[in-house]
Amino acid sequence: MPYINIKVTDEGVTAEQKKALIRGTTELMVKVLNKTPNTTFVVIDEVNTDNWGIGYEQVTEIRGK
């Protein structure tokens, strides 16, 4: 029972893009590890850019430059 957790910033990821991520990561598990799609869980967490840091800065600050 694979559990896949995808974290992305909350900057306009569409429902269609999320569907594609779920489908694509599930298909990867099926092809590479022979997992059953019905027991493969995919969770997408959208993280506010204030809560995501790279180096010493928040992504919000980096994107503002």
TrEMBL record:
Residues 2-59 form the 4-oxalocrotonate tautomerase-like domain. It comes from the Bacteria. SUPFAM superfamilies: Tautomerase/MIF. Its EC number is 5.3.2.-. GO terms for molecular function: isomerase activity. InterPro entries: 4-OT (IPR018191), 4-OT-like_dom (IPR004370), Tautomerase/MIF_sf (IPR014347). Keywords: Isomerase. The active site is at P2 (proton acceptor). PANTHER family: 2-HYDROXYMUCONATE TAUTOMERASE, TAUTOMERASE-RELATED. This is Tautomerase. The lineage of its organism: Bacteria, Pseudomonadati, Pseudomonadota, Gammaproteobacteria, Alteromonadales.
